[in-house]
Amino acid sequence: MAHLKLGMVGGGQGAFIGGVHRMAARLDGCFDLVAGAFSSDPARAHAFAAELGIADYRSYSDYNEMAKAEAARSDGIDAVSIVTPNHLHGPIAEAFLAHDISVICDKPMTATLAQAESLVEAAKSSKGHFFLTHNYTGYPLIRQARQMVADGALGDIRIVEANYLQDWLSEAPAEDNKQAKWRMDPAQSGGGAIGDIGTHAHNLACFVTGLHVTSLSATLSSNVAGRLVDDDARITLQFEGGARGHVWASQVAIGNENNLTLAVYGTKGSLRWVQENPNVLWFAELGTAPQMITRASGAASPAATAVTRIPAGHPEGYLEAFATLYREAADAITNQNLSGATLGAQEGLDGVRFVDACQRSSRDKATWIDLP
Amino acid sequence: MAHLKLGMVGGGQGAFIGGVHRMAARLDGCFDLVAGAFSSDPARAHAFAAELGIADYRSYSDYNEMAKAEAARSDGIDAVSIVTPNHLHGPIAEAFLAHDISVICDKPMTATLAQAESLVEAAKSSKGHFFLTHNYTGYPLIRQARQMVADGALGDIRIVEANYLQDWLSEAPAEDNKQAKWRMDPAQSGGGAIGDIGTHAHNLACFVTGLHVTSLSATLSSNVAGRLVDDDARITLQFEGGARGHVWASQVAIGNENNLTLAVYGTKGSLRWVQENPNVLWFAELGTAPQMITRASGAASPAATAVTRIPAGHPEGYLEAFATLYREAADAITNQNLSGATLGAQEGLDGVRFVDACQRSSRDKATWIDLP
Amino acid sequence: MAHLKLGMVGGGQGAFIGGVHRMAARLDGCFDLVAGAFSSDPARAHAFAAELGIADYRSYSDYNEMAKAEAARSDGIDAVSIVTPNHLHGPIAEAFLAHDISVICDKPMTATLAQAESLVEAAKSSKGHFFLTHNYTGYPLIRQARQMVADGALGDIRIVEANYLQDWLSEAPAEDNKQAKWRMDPAQSGGGAIGDIGTHAHNLACFVTGLHVTSLSATLSSNVAGRLVDDDARITLQFEGGARGHVWASQVAIGNENNLTLAVYGTKGSLRWVQENPNVLWFAELGTAPQMITRASGAASPAATAVTRIPAGHPEGYLEAFATLYREAADAITNQNLSGATLGAQEGLDGVRFVDACQRSSRDKATWIDLP
Amino acid sequence: MAHLKLGMVGGGQGAFIGGVHRMAARLDGCFDLVAGAFSSDPARAHAFAAELGIADYRSYSDYNEMAKAEAARSDGIDAVSIVTPNHLHGPIAEAFLAHDISVICDKPMTATLAQAESLVEAAKSSKGHFFLTHNYTGYPLIRQARQMVADGALGDIRIVEANYLQDWLSEAPAEDNKQAKWRMDPAQSGGGAIGDIGTHAHNLACFVTGLHVTSLSATLSSNVAGRLVDDDARITLQFEGGARGHVWASQVAIGNENNLTLAVYGTKGSLRWVQENPNVLWFAELGTAPQMITRASGAASPAATAVTRIPAGHPEGYLEAFATLYREAADAITNQNLSGATLGAQEGLDGVRFVDACQRSSRDKATWIDLP
């Protein structure tokens, strides 16, 4: 098992996703968190670093300084996790890549298309690797779904449906809701539901089917007075090879917590999966009884088993799927071997292009936009 | 309880929906089936009529003749059920309405917009009533959903999602599949999935929310070689008052039998319902635990109770919902009082306009089409 | 299709099960209700008969008189439905059987073991047939389950679990609750939950597995102050051949409406079924993905298809299952051929013996009682 | 947050529960695993320790030696995890407690009642603490259920139902199945399903209700030829205060993976929970719509929130619940304060007494056995 040294930028007090990355990094024992820039305020940064057991001299308040200092240490970090608001992902990632330090970056990759294109180049010219945490790809049964599609179990793909419904922004959030605040600011987020969760749905659809979106028609809307970003996005997709698809991402769909669902329909069969109960994958073949495939069961495929930790019926959840991405990043860094399962800068660029195209389509009455 | 005399046109040997109408008419004892034109072949018509216990002299092979003869009898039928292929609905309905005989007609109301407009006029000038069997409106919890929306339990409606997924046309049907044969012929059906099931989804969305569609953008597709009608339809809707909606109707979504679902999201709460388990209605208010409202329970509303036959936990199904439309038609005919729950020619016209607009939009790259 | 003449005893105004029997008798058009003794009060009996469209001269207030009069008519009833409180089932059934009129009797067959034994003899010596409406046996997927067990799909049966949970008697019922009133009176009901619903669970377990209970240990309890009958019953069963079983019947299990479930575990596989969603049967074979078998689907067996009315995904419910028993009774009477699916006096006796044994066991600290 | 040093005895190559304990110890960063006795074979012990990054000189092959050596080190372990077969739990725990090292022990606490009683005394006289990992008590919604019962949300408890169904021992296990091997040996396990999973069900029922079992009647059986321990156990329980209960534990119920369920019925309401989908708790109050309470939602109680890591809809699973017990043990050790949530030697003794009483009852035809 890998034992790597990890740094983190962002994710201080009160943040949600920073804590998730730390638990994910810890679960399999692949990473030790030894350095961090948890705040641009030095006192707050130090206080939080101390809480995490990080030495004072490896707590930074400036990510450029951190990249330089860690690169100079003989025991410097092997990788950095970036868990800041979206508009900082690009500059921070480039700072560490410039010092050949690998980057594990939250999604969407950047807030703008220009940042994304720049980062792709930066990743190419670095000895460090770039990993993007579309964490839902880490679920064992999502891996199985991908393998089943690739193996032809569904026949030719006709329809892909990926919906991601939440309700936490159904009303104007409280003033002190840090999670909401930067997301509601287009300059920091680059977009609303479309970037925050729409990219997950888009990524999952492409990850499982192996198909690329060739054109799309989108309607983004905002449902709360004064809101500057979209909170509901509906996109019709055309995939290479003729399959059609649909993404619905909403943060105002009351009664949905984090209801990401994927359905893939082919000429021979279908697969359906629901993130909130992720240990089950439904497989239906035309004319036969639908099968309930469960994680770690006799019906689990090698692709699922490879990322499974505990037996069937012992539910694995969100953190385990996230930890799988960390374990795979650790393996890739250790072995200098980027496995097929790993998402990188290209997938990040695809996601930002998706957001950009949706925004352009929506501004023009859902006109069809081609994607490269 | 009403005791009315019923005739039927169509629905002979091997038909599906004819038998459904007969059971629905029988369940509550409101109608006696006493006449029928079950086939244009006299021998087949008579044989089937005899099987149903219908007197020979009230078995017809021509619907015009039947309308005339029954109108002339002192014990003539009070109503006729029309369960033929779509393109015949209009002419047959008009024939009976012309003799002031009430009509209970399967959906879609007609195969063309011209037929629909003509039928609306015919219904207006007849002393008979016209009833359209969008049978899913007969489910108790759909009635409750409608009442809850009307009562403001959801606040202002933001999003309406009605999906209707089947898989029975995933491949080319067998030559002798009567159900499929006329549906696959545009001249008889007027359209594919959009007319057969899309109209149900559209009707249900409007019935429950009380909202009217003002414009739509549709993509119809056909997924089986040689098929002349659509088998998959995806429509984005704009409702009066600003709500947005979505209908997905598919007959090639493997693993779905008759999976009609409705979700309505408002500013305060949401409702979700699944036809295949129709005795449950999910109600979520923002910030509280979702509630599972069940038919005939303490949480059932008067609107639901009014159309409920048996206690909670004793599942009612498709036939009971269908029978409710028959009972309401019987009451309306008997009392000369068309209750609010009854669907008539106007709703039929709305449905045919919906189909027509979807077909025009789809032919023009999903351009937005306004509805009157 | 049969067209038989039906009478009814009991089931007047405000009764639940009488209306169920009438709808069940009507659904498939096999029976016309032409006579009845709906009340011992002549005026009430007549008023209710009139409401049902029954001729005044065939409305009775005394079942003995009715049996005699109907037997004497050339157009007398072919069968009578008995839907009174339990203690009257036996005497009424015997009265009609004595005139060779077939009997369709609600469960439990009688209130006492002596009545049951007497009725078995009466049934043997009559030209009429005796049918017992353990209606859950009419569900298509229960028929399929039985066939699968008989075909060996589960291997040797190890464990049978039949639970029947309700909550409507969690508190003392209202004074005017007719359903509750006679059930709470041991003289009329013969027992509480054990007779009312425990017999259904016992019958279903035996019906599906084809196994006979050889001994049992029961604990009956009463959970509401002043209640004279049991409202919760827990029984451990031993079946012939070594299988073990368990029945839990409760009317005080809050949150359960009519939650009858059956699970059968064998050496090779298992079946699970839930009455409140009866169109699904779960089948699991060791080491493979569980299959969701649905009514009328490609995975439905001939035994299920034979009692199915409408296509997959169009839910059939409680009334349809009940109607199947009526249709089968009609066929049996018409053809003088009692099919294997039909429950008669022997099954009724088994049920009353089960109740009697449970009551004896419970009075003696759950001691094991052998059954004949 | 605590940063404690942890040792482990057992849990070497190929073991299941050892890995679970290590992930659970790691997730929240409370423990560093620094010492271990992973095998009685020194070479194997060292090899596995090295894989885990444990220094060679802190890898032991004898637990007595380990206890002594670690107690003597200035940086010795604060706690030891015991993940061996059951019959070794007692001796190992006593060895560490004798050196005032805290013990985190898998369940059941011991293989025999004598061992359990001895261990209770050892725990009392040690400065170390004893923690028992009935891990299902760590689920947030189990904590909520317990709080709701304590707060009277259900009224007086009438019925408690805890079932734990698996199928992995439906046939004789493979020769090389380490998990199965020692469990099938009564000398090592002390019992079959009753100890392995029955104790979990018993513990959960008591943990949530706060009630103590006063007497029980049990039937244990063995369903596979040659098997020396029970694989199916059915127990009727009597609780203090009059509530009745039932435990069914089976390892031959095909189609069940790790299907632990709990239902608690009171005079006012009920709670139902299913381990395989642990982020949902059903709450029903008499006469109102059942509520679906989800982890981390607005309906989650403080008791649930206290042990919740991530937002609603992001499923937490088995490892997170397990990690909660580790975090609570770390807090208890650090603060010398045993919180109410922590299970210790007394609960361990209760569990072993439960097993012992079940075995005695079963040997005597399910006779009722009183518990102290």
Q: Biggest interface and its residues per chain? A: A-D, 39 and 39 residues
Q: Which oligomeric state applies?
A: homotetramer
Main pleated-sheet profile of chain A:
9 strands, mixed
Radius of gyration of chain A: 20 Å
What number of domains of chain A?
2
Principal-axes shape call of chain A: globular
Mean pLDDT of chain A, to the nearest integer, reads: 96
Number of strands of chain A: 14
Query: Which stretches of chain A are poorly predicted, pLDDT < 50 over at least 5 residues?
Result: none
Class per helix and strand makeup of chain A: alpha/beta
Describe it.
Chain A is α/β, with parallel strands linked by helices and 372 residues long. Chain A has 2 domains: 4-132, 3-Layer(aba) Sandwich (Rossmann fold); 140-310 and 349-363, Dihydrodipicolinate Reductase, domain 2 (2-Layer Sandwich), CATH 3.30.360.10. Helices cover 36% and strands 23% of the residues of chain A. The first copy, chain A, has 12 helices and 14 strands. In chain A, the strands form 2 sheets. In chain A, strands 13-12-11-10-6-9-8-7-14 form a 9-stranded mixed sheet. Chain A has a 5-stranded parallel sheet with strand order 2-1-3-4-5, with helices on both faces. In chain A, a hairpin with a 2-residue loop joins strand 10 (259-266) and strand 11 (269-274). Chain A is globular. The relative contact order of chain A is 0.16. The B-D interface holds B 283, 287-294, 297-299 and D 283, 287-294, 297-299.
